[in-house]
Amino acid sequence: MSPRVLLVGVADSNRARWEKVDSLDELGSLTQTAGGDVVEKLVQVRQKLDPATLVGKGMVGRLKKIRREYRVDLLIFDEELSPTQLRNLEEGIGIRVIDRAALILDIFALHAHTAEAKIQVELAQLEYRQSRLTGLGVEMSRLGGGIGTRGPGETQLEVDRRRIQQRIVALRRALRRIDRERTTQRRRRANLFRVVLVGYTNAGKSTLFNRLTKAGIKVSDQLFATLDPNTKALDLGRYVRIVLTDTVGFIRSLPHQLIASFRATLSEVREADFLLHVADSTDVQVDRRIDVVNDTLQEVGANSKPTLMVFSKIDRVFDDAVLSRLRRGYSKAVFVSGRTGTGVEKLKSTMQDLIELQMVTRVFTVPESKWDLISLVCRSGQVVTDEVRDGKRRIVVRGFQPVLGRVRKEINQALRRKSQLIS
Ligand SMILES: Nc1nc2c(ncn2[C@@H]2O[C@H](COP(=O)(O)OP(=O)(O)O)[C@@H](O)[C@H]2O)c(=O)[nH]1
Ligand SMILES: [Mg+2]
Fold first, then answer.
1. Start and end of every Hflx-type G domain (predicted)?
2. Are 225 and 218 contacting, i.e. CB atoms less than 8 angstroms apart?
3. 3-state SS assignment for residue 268
4. What pLDDT, on the 0 to 100 scale, is given for residue 316?
5. Which residues in the chain show pLDDT less than 70?
6. Is 134:89 a contact under the CB 8 Å cutoff?
7. Where in the chain is the domain with CATH 3.40.50.300?
8. How far apart (Å, rounded) are the C-alpha atoms in residues 37 and 31?
């Protein structure tokens, strides 16, 4: 049976109240994704937060009453709670309490299927828990159907701190290995132009990915269904070799432990040559969510990349005013439906035009004997001329600036390694 969950948020003014109501709706979707049943949502307007319990004393009493009336199993706060606040609230209300960050961590744990995702989630969970283990015992952690306590890291809440610390060290080591593997994989793809889909969770990225690459990856109405990056060739109908990557979505208040431990996964975003920022055109909060994505991109270190805005799900927009408002606000954006395919050809041609702006011509000089390097150069773009001079191949290539930059780096490194071997 699903645990019965009560959602609580605090707004500092009547105006902020509406934002909070929307945020609680989102918290409701997150709760459902985690397997909970939302029985009630509450917003308290309060200018000054109570340091001990966030909400006031009166509210704590009210929550206790609601808890009994609605037979609530778990209380989820939209705000970040300190360990002391968590403890005080749990004692005052007599029920397990978690915050938004713990809930998001829980969903990540639920959706982590590969070794890489599992390690990253476990690390984030341990770091989160290490800083805020609450005082309540094992009996409490079983209430609430396990929401906020699940995951690969779940042995017991009260694992001794030293063992947690040892585990964290081991996980960090495993992550460094994964990071190195990803870097090696990317080096093998040095001569491919990298396009990465980014956007708020549930924006329609995976659906668009499937449409563009004819892949069959999982699409679902759950939040954070995609945790592991998927990469496939993207055919824009020219000689350029492009790969498209679909990866984890963003959300407001993404726990920073997750951003830190998902470094390997997010490196796909950081190392992208071009971003497609997908936003849901049916979402009334679309502008705010675009801002959240842009802020997160900045946090990840990927904010200054060439980016094309893509508004998705236009098959579900029945009010023309919505689209014209978005067209006015985002004049360079493309409008598509990943589901029906509308606008996808236009998206491809716009992408092609933007990518072509980065076309450059470069000269590579490689010893004739280095077949692997010569083949790397020849596959990195359009070969304009290719001649032999003094035992060296002089190849002129027209291709994308970031790709040719990477190929140049690879060649320099390989030649340097070789000269070190000789000397
Ligand atoms: N009507 C409609 N629904 C869509 C479209 N694209 C995605 N969806 C739905 O939106 C939800 C999230 O889609 P998904 O591609 O998994 O989003 P992601 O989290 O950004 O990868 C799913 O229920 C999809 O079926 C679209 O173009 N039209
Ligand atoms: Mg997805």
1. 193-359
2. yes
3. helix
4. 96
5. 132-146, 149-160, 238-240, 421-423
6. no
7. 190-356
8. 7
Span 4-146 CATH architecture: 3-Layer(aba) Sandwich (3.40)
Interval between CA 9 and ligand 2 midpoint (Å): 27
Measured in Å, residue 279 CA sits from the centre of ligand 1 at: 11
Mark out the alpha helices in 94-215 (DSSP H runs): 100-111, 115-132, 138-142, 161-188, 205-213
| CA of residue 337 to ligand 1 center, whole Å | 9
| pLDDT confidence of residue 14 | 87
**Is any atom of ligand 1 closer than 6 Å to the C-beta of 247?**
no
210 CB near ligand 1 (under 6 Å): no
Q: In whole angstroms, give the CA distance from residue 273 to residue 221.
A: 29
What gap in Å lies between CA 17 and CA 154, rounded to an integer? 36
Residues with Cβ < 8 Å from 421, sequence gap 6 or more?
A: none
Helix (H, G, I), strand (E, B) or coil at 295: helix
Q: State the pLDDT at residue 37.
A: 96
Domain 190-356: assigned CATH number: 3.40.50.300
Q: Where in the chain is the domain with CATH 3.40.50.11060?
A: 4-146
Residues of the chain with CATH 3.30.70: 359-422
Atom of ligand 1 nearest to the CA of 202: 19
Q: How far apart are CA 92 and CA 94, in angstroms?
A: 6
Of all protein residues, whose CA lies closest to atom 6 belonging to ligand 1?
A: 204
User: Whose alpha carbon is nearest atom 12 of ligand 1?
Assistant: 202
Distances, alpha carbon 255 to alpha carbons 121, 151, 162, in Å: 11, 16, 23
Q: Are strands 382-389 and 392-400 parallel, antiparallel or unpaired?
A: antiparallel
Please give the number of the atom of ligand 1 that sits closest to the Cα of 197.
20
For residue 15, what pLDDT is reported?
Answer: 87
pLDDT value for 328: 96
The pLDDT value recorded for residue 184 is: 86
CATH code for the domain defined by 359-422: 3.30.70
| Distance from residue 343's CA to the centre of ligand 1 (Å) | 15
